[in-house]
Amino acid sequence: MYVRFNAQKVGFLGGCRPFVGLDGCHIKHRYGGQILSATAKDANDNIFPVAMAVVEQENKESWTRFLEIFADDIGRPEELQLVFISDRQKGLIPAIETLFPTVEHRYCVKHIYNNFKVDHKGLELKDALWRCAAATTVREFERCMQYIKDLDEKAYEYLANIAPEQWSRPHFTPRALTDCLVNNLSESFNSMILKSRDKPILAMLEWIRVKLMTRLYTKREGIQKYAGKLYPSIQDKLEKLKEESKSFSAIPAGSFLYEVASQYERHVVDLVKKTCSYRYWDLNGISCKHVITAIYTNIETPETYTQPCYHKETYMEIYKELAPVAPHIYKPPGRPPKQRKKAADKPRSPYKASRMNRPVRCGKCKKEGHNSRGCKARGGVPAPSIRSGSAPQDAPQPPSQQPTQPYNMRSATQPSSSQQGNQARPSHMRAGWFSSSQLEFHTPRETWDTLPRSSQPSPTYRSTGGVRSRGQLAAKRPSKLTLVGGKSKGKK
């Protein structure tokens, strides 16, 4: 079962970066199952769920089917320049190699280390592995790999068997605009839907829909109150990089080409091509400390060199649509039928007698054309119907042989049962929600926060007229009442 709302597709293609995390999690009810998900990043580095599917188990066939539907629905990953990151789940790697052999596929370094530490333990090897993954240049990566080789030859061979393009930053392509090393996107989504994973499938999907609807609305309302150009988390990163750039100096080496150096390192920044030899700017789209130094030397601001994927306008484009609300289901009045209506050309059971093309025959007078309810055997007056709980009546008799009806001990003012049936009964009032039309029973009231500033009334203050004396206040008080002779009189 593949699930994707229109707001997710519009938001992903409208402003998210081409970086998708793939993962699966277990369903905890008695029948089991798996939830396969695809999660992206928004302009504030928060998760943005794109699509999900409910499958029986996680294998190559289920991942192949999910990725095929994902490509037909969202778009071909080759055309969109997508970059996948995963935990190397069962069946996912062969599925991606079969369907999208040219698409970049990164591995989560945390899960690589979890498999690495089984045979290669020690904090020194752990720190060396993460230094290799977090290096920004190829020279630094090779130096860290040589350090691991000097520590443990088998640990070096284990990491050398994994392609460096799948787990180290120096070999990442800059098209994803992120240098993320772990698959925290999918892990955060699995944690978000944790409370619904023990429910039945339909109840679980409905819980997730409400969660997405609330999340999209909250994000959209929050950005409308923000006045900055970049989103807060991106602006905070930029402010920290500005502080770190104070120890660097930039020397012009050409047209918008600078050599930025400090006491320990030296890099080349090209403001036209928007590249830096440190490669942080290339991978993330955010100016690094070397680029900020060159920008200030060029008398500009670093915010203007930040990629548009981090701007407020892009964030608003992502969350411009909301997830659909629950549809209005019309329930017709009356008891629902238990037997389905069969088609006219469908063959009927030979063991069951059919009433088709058979004349209607009365059970009392044995004549055709009417039934016993509409029989006029009593001089043109329809025979009374026998209701449940009443005594059966005898066959009609001539007037001379009919028994006399006993006197009914009922008050003259109380109407009989026949008179009660002839009286018009009051019709019951139906509530508005029983009709198919939408009920409008309340209009939301505008509050002070929802009103625009132009329409908010200016506060008015009443003058108190100075300090009032005790006599002036007493003059406005109502006169006290005293009881005199059982009557109340005003005190003069």
From TrEMBL:
Ranges for region Disordered: 328-428, 444-492
Domain SWIM-type: 258-299
Pfam name, any one: MULE
Name of protein: SWIM-type domain-containing protein
Ranges of Polar residues composition bias in the record: 407-425, 452-463
Cytoplasm found in the keyword field: no
Superkingdom of this protein's organism: Eukaryota
Coiled coil ranges: none
GO MF entries: zinc ion binding
Organism per entry: Lithocarpus litseifolius
Keywords assigned: Metal-binding, Zinc, Zinc-finger
Residues spanning the signal sequence: none
